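hey team, just a heads up i'm posting the complex here instead of the shared drive bc the drive is being weird again. everything in one block, sequence lines first with there labels, then the predicted structure for the whole assembly after. its two chains so it's a bit long, scroll down
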Amino acid sequence: MTLTLEKTEQALAPLVEVKDLKHVYGGGKGGPGLVVLEDVNLTLKADEIVGLLGRSGSGKSTLLRSIAGLITPTAGTVSVSDVPGDDAAHGVAMVFQSFALFPWLTVQKNVEVGLEAQGVPADIRRKRTLAAIDLIGLDGFENAYPKELSGGMRQRVGLARALVVQPSVLLMDEPFSALDVLTAETLRTDLLDLWSEGRMPIRSILLVTHNIEEAVLMCDRILVFSSNPGRVIAEIKVDLPQPRKRLDPAFRALVDDIYARMTAKPKAPAREGHFPGTGLGMALTHISTNTLNGMIETLTGGPYNGSADLADLARELQMEADELLPIAETLQLMRFAELAGRTLRLTAPGRRYDSFDVDQRKQMFAQHLLAYVPLAAHIRRVLDDRASHQAPASRFRDELEDFMSEAYAEETMDAIISWGRYGEIFAYHEDDDRFSLDDPA
Amino acid sequence: MVFLSSDRLNAGLIARFARRELAPNRFDLIAMALIGGFAVLVVHGARQMNLPVSALSTTPISLDLARLPEYALRSTLRMFAAITLSLLFTFGVATLAAKSRKAELVIIPMLDIAQSIPIISFLAFTMTFFVGLFPGSQLGVECAAIFLVFTSQAWNMAFSFYQSLRTLPGDLAEVTQQFGLSPWQKFIKLELPFATPALIWNTMMSMSGGWFFVVASEAFTVGKTQYMLPGIGSWLAVAIDRMDLRAVAWAVGAMAVIIVAYDQLLFRPIVAWADKFRFEQTASAEEPESWFLDLLRRTRLAGRLLKPLSRLGRLITRSPRRRQTAPTPVSPRLAQWINGVWTVVTSAAVVGAVWAIARYLFLHLDLADLLTAVGDGFLTFTRVAILIVVASLIWVPIGVWIGLRPTWSRRVQALVQFLAAFPANVIFPFAVMGIVAWRLDPNIWLSPLIILGTQWYILFNVVAGASALPNDLKEAAGIFHLRAWQRWRDFILPGIMPYYVTGALTASGGSWNASVVAEAVSWGHTTEVAKGLGSFIAEATAAGNIPKVALGATVMSIFVIALNRSLWRPLFNYAEKNFRLT
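-- predicted structure starts here --
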């Protein structure tokens, strides 16, 4: 892109500046709370699309909402500069993952919402609304209600609603993740076309996503976030010329590189795999045993022969990093596989597991579960020690909550219950929320 | 308890809400004490005024058939006034509770208690109070009647609105904030539309329960004073007094016409219109229809009439603009201080209220009265319990049979809705005639009257539950040839359980109210009495013994609230948690 001198100068002035942002959820009653964002700095300049990339729980949405003024961060500053000479008071406007349209308003009324809030007179409102609807390819649908539209059309309404208030920065919160693959691709392309032709009244886009390819496809700059707490672990400049091609080797290399960065082991030595916390305090992700088995079978079969590149796996299984990484990490925790860089490789026990029948698999799963997941061993030990061979689940949940937030404790309990049931190392009764050793068999 | 709408989404939200408030907490006690104390003060104040209540001149009611349309209209207008009042109350109080945490802590338990209280037992108080407010004029009686109907309707409407406001979809709330809508614009664009379907459903249910109270309040005797308001209720009272069977039949007919007209001309159009506010991004499978709404939409006149309205609407939405900002937390010290003041104020009010109640009751009553009231309470409790069981045994199989046949259930639903709205007290005279004619024991044979009007809630909900049973489960039950008993035990009963419990608890609450009217019924100069708390209150009212009425009403409130807390609510939560098919 060639820039005139004037444009360069404009581009130097930051549109959004975030300094030392920190956000903590909960922690109202003396507890430490959950740190979702820490030490986050971000500068957004004109004429760039910046992507915030990270797994769920990395606080990227929280950062976006802080910039949108929806959340007051615990510490740090957010400043949004208004464009001089522009009468629009809003520096930012947001597009939502769930579209967030009022179901009882027509397309036109939905788009008008922001202008009405600004007190723009009806005739000007109408003119600007129709122009935005036209720009975004929605003409003909002015009088439709959201329920009559497909997902792609609904997100176009969301986009028109954001553009019509003429923000200098467009904030997009996973705008394409609720759409099917084809629709998402069309919308991305249309958005990029409008952007490169300069037909939108915006000067910069901030895009939250967990889809690596989407980030590489659209962004000039990508900030990669770690989880627990969310920190910027890498800033990657994307210099590939637009329009970018997914099959371009340079594109592929960049995607693989980001995969590697997202799976890179954190520096802290005390961590097992990528699960935050150690020992009993390890927060687990609830992955179905069917999924674990399926992943092991995929790794042995097909072209992989026990070792696969994560990016290739993601493409074949149509999964995003967000979904794939926890599976890989759970396999690693159970010592059925190893993560090295961006490669997932089956271990010897993992290969053996694959060759087993159902009962043998369950036995082996139980052994590994007791050996490598401290919580499972702990529950089993308590049940063995007690004469009644029973224990209320709340007891373990409370223990977990000493280490982690309530939501993580809940997820960890779900995981351990389903794995424990599969390995038949204990039984769980939902009605009265207790563990026992009695086996219905 | 808020009536569940047919909308499953809402039902889920309600369930979540109900679960949170499972255990009776100190706020219930606070609310109860405050309401009771207020009632005592009101009566006390009214009596202090020492007004010649008997001096009230009432227009004599004539049984001239030509007057019946006018009476019917008067009753209808009374209902309309009450429902308007209920809506205003809902918008004000429920909004306040949803927006202010402090107000919420007092309002919500108050509403919860208020909707459990059998308010008809308080009619004597409200009459005394309002007649005292407007001495010597019909207006006081009119206000008392409207107020009574209002108290039978407002609570569940306010609850539904409050719950809607508390469960606004998060992303839309963010939109209003991000695009800087003013609080008023947020109310018009988001809160009101979102709350509309549930509110309309609850208004319909309130209205349906309200006719009973309209009839009951239009002719009322406290001691030597008889209050008569021109309307269907007073027409009925005069007809009963004169043993005019033909006039009673006319009252039944007129009531039927009113209810059908209300349904067809008011509620059906509103429900059909409000379908667009359902919070679903997909079109509903079966859209509600209304011939009257279609007619209105087709006529040009209506459009022209509505035009100024829509202009007014636009004017309303264009309001002073104030941008919302992210909420800033109050400093902890200030919050602590406010909390302290709040606690002191509420505690003082509660202590005062308890003292007022105790002093009042001790002054006028002895222990024997209390024992009689409690004993009678258990009699009425037994009656209600047995009747709920009997009604369930009859209506659950029938309801399931109907619900599993879609063409039938649609037709029957409308009929049952009509029957539920029909004020059962209009039919009571026929029962007394039967008891007198066959010399039956009123203790047994008056009992069915208690559930005459409220049993329909059971049928209504069971039909709704059975027709909501998912098709795949029906097919699975068929394919595996489930035996009759197994089919009921494993499939049908669990499937309809949440619906049945809702119906049964509504029927139970309504039955306590009905007992005040149903345990002592007259025909001419014969009065048949069944011993129970209802007749205890009715007789005390007739004798003008206000302290005894207060005692009876308090004991009944305690019975109903205890029953709700110890039986219905846990049952409801259990059913919602375990058997709600989503």
